[in-house]
Write a structure and sequence with these properties.
The complex is a heterodimer of chains A (289) and B (283). Chain A has 289 residues and is mostly helical. Chain A is 79% helix and 0% strand. Chain B is mainly alpha-helical and 283 residues long. Chain B has a domain of 177 residues: Orthogonal Bundle (MetI-like fold). Chain B is built from twelve helices and no strands. The chains are: A mainly alpha (289), B mainly alpha (283). Chains A and B meet through helix 3, helix 6, helix 7, helix 8 and helix 9 of A and helix 1, helix 3, helix 4, helix 5 and helix 6 of B. Chain B: It is found in: Cell membrane.
């Protein structure tokens, strides 16, 4: 103890002499990322926060009915949409865990929505739902003789469709992750429970769920953070319409940006931070271990 | 041959009852796009499940750029490809260097950098897009491919660093020690020991970055605007601007655009699944 204290009291040699060559290399190799981080994360975020410093931006935001609507839509998207998605993913992970050749083939096809870019497939759905020419209403007309509804013109239906598109796109990814978790459960647990005569619910309740709940909750939170940034599902399907009633926070920020109201755009993002930062903090704690 | 029991048939039926809707749900938007792509113009809007006269004519129109909306198709395809490859290469460079430094050289402050990167990973990309757009304007990079390349590297690098760090933490320390004993310099250690051993993860990360950049819509649409500068997804989005946009051509172009990433994904699936889900499952 005494030695280290006296050592630190002595005038320290110049920095370069204290570093070993590997450490010099280590710092040099970190520089590219640090430059990217400073130029394209620190500076933009700092500048954005500086733009959003005026309380008047928040007053303007508060008085904009589109913002309130977008906040509610975002909550619906996250709380209802993501939970439905994760429950289906949990269910399907059990389905894909079955050892059958045809199920293995189906899992290869099932991953397609994740493997293909979202733009063409979302536009494909948009055309299907077109009131006059879309295949959905064509089929409704063929079978019932009635005109189908104008799907994307009703804000509730349009938002539900956007959630559906989001689920279509990201369900395979989460199913795959949960499947990996499920396959990691030792098989003899299930064999033992078979001997004891457990039914499928008891097996799920007492074997599957306890081993998967941490993973499931982590996945749900992660999916919520990412879905906040899901611009494509809403923008390309509804464009925020009809009458700007289906915006979510991510499309609203871009809308303000396009209207050259940058301080409003940043203020709307800052408003989401009390919700985002705890989730980010929790995820960082989990992943940096 | 043993006949299946009633119970086995029942289980199989229940599985099919799940499998068939899953198949239909997955295929509908993709199949719809495909049918449009092979339908002649007058057939496309009749709501048929299979066109009466399937044709490849739409593909020929796209490849020969014979439509107002498609006059820059090849240059936009080229833009998409160049940008995706540049993002893949730059991300690999930045992330491998950082992961080697943090995990193998244990540079002081490495953990803090890792946390900063993770923080970036969790900022929703659409939120970062707003200030990023203005910053690119300040740097004078708007309407320049570098703006999109650098923005995508910023988004791809954090996850890449994290995956590579996880993978390199698993390599035994003795390797580095043995190499250093034999007189290897740090660079030789990196080039001759680290990179060869990390190859599977490097393939996974490179593929991840390339696919991310090829598929990106929001940043491409904000940062690039000239018809000869934009990437394919932005061009697809621009189709929507017109009321009389030719759907069958849009769907054909979309189909062509979706093929390369799907092919890459399936070709590298082995690496993607192993390398990229490992972290998420760790609990």
């Amino acid at each position: 103890m005494a030695i280290t204290l006296s050592a630190s009291d002595a005038p320290s040699p110049p920095l370069s002499a204290r570093l070993t060559p590997p450490q010099v290399w280590g710092i040099a190799l970190l520089v590219p990322y640090l430059l990217v981080f400073l130029a394209f994360v620190v500076y933009p975020v700092g500048y954005g926060l500086w733009l959003a410093r005026h309380p008047s931006s928040y007053v303007a935001l508060y008085n904009d009915p589109i913002f309130a609507r977008a906040a509610v839509n975002t909550l619906i998207f996250l709380v209802i949409g993501i939970n439905i998605k994760m429950l289906i993913a949990l269910f399907l992970s059990g389905f894909f865990a079955q050892q059958r050749p045809w199920i293995r083939w189906l899992s290869v096809i099932f991953i397609l929505p994740w493997a293909v870019p979202s733009i063409p497939t979302i536009l494909s759905v948009r055309f299907m739902l077109n009131p006059e020419w879309g295949v959905v209403n064509q089929l409704i007309f063929k079978f019932t003789g009635d005109d189908g509804p104008n799907w994307l013109n009703d804000p509730a239906v349009a938002l539900a469709m956007a959630i559906g598109v989001h689920i279509w796109k990201s369900l395979p990814f989460w199913t795959l992750i949960l499947l990996t978790g499920r396959l990691a459960i030792p098989h003899d647990l299930y064999e033992a429970s078979d001997v004891d005569g457990a039914n499928w619910w008891q097996k799920f309740r007492y074997i599957t769920w306890p081993s998967m709940q941490t993973l499931y909750i982590t996945c749900t939170l992660l999916s919520m953070i990412w879905t906040l940034g899901d611009f494509n599902s809403v923008y390309l399907l509804t464009g925020g319409g009809p009458a700007d009633l289906t915006h979510v926070l991510s499309t609203l920020g871009i809308r303000y940006l396009r209207l050259d109201q940058l301080s409003l755009a940043m203020a709307s993002i800052v408003c989401a931070m009390p919700f985002v930062l705890p989730l980010v903090y929790y995820m960082m704690k989990r992943l940096s271990r | 041959m043993k006949l299946p029991t009633l119970r086995e048939v029942g289980t199989e039926a229940k599985l099919l009852l799940i499998g068939i809707p899953v198949f239909i749900w997955t295929m509908i938007p993709i199949y719809h796009m495909f049918v449009f792509a092979i339908s002649p113009k007058e057939d496309a809007f009749t709501g048929k499940l299979w066109p009466t006269h399937p044709t490849l004519h739409n593909f020929s129109i796209v490849f020969h750029q014979q439509h107002y909306f498609l006059r820059d198709f090849w240059i936009q395809f080229w833009n998409s490809a160049v940008i995706a490859l540049a993002v893949g290469a730059l991300t690999l460079f930045v992330a491998t260097a950082a992961a080697f430094s943090i995990s193998r050289l244990r540079v002081p402050g490495g953990r803090a950098v890792m946390n900063l990167a993770l923080f970036t990973y969790f900022i929703p990309a659409a939120f970062l897009a707003v200030p990023m757009y203005r910053t690119m304007g300040t740097y004078g990079l708007l309407n320049n491919h570098w703006s999109l390349i650098l923005a995508m590297v910023t988004i791809a690098a954090p996850y890449a660093i994290w995956v590579l760090k996880q993978a390199s933490d698993k390599l035994p320390v003795e390797l580095d020690e043995a190499a250093t004993m034999d007189g290897a310099t740090t660079l030789q250690l990196f080039r001759l020991v680290y990179v060869p051993l990390m190859m599977p993860s490097l393939v996974a990360v490179g593929t991840y970055a390339i696919l991310l950049a090829w598929n990106e819509y929001l940043y491409a649409f904000l940062l690039l605007s000239k018809d000869t500068d934009i990437t394919l997804p932005v061009a697809l989005g621009n189709f929507l601007a017109a009321d009389d946009s030719p759907w069958e051509l849009l769907m054909t172009t979309g189909f062509i655009y979706a093929l390369p990433p799907a092919a890459v994904y399936y070709a590298f699936k082995r690496y993607m699944v192993g390398g990229l889900t490992a972290g998420a499952v760790k609990s």
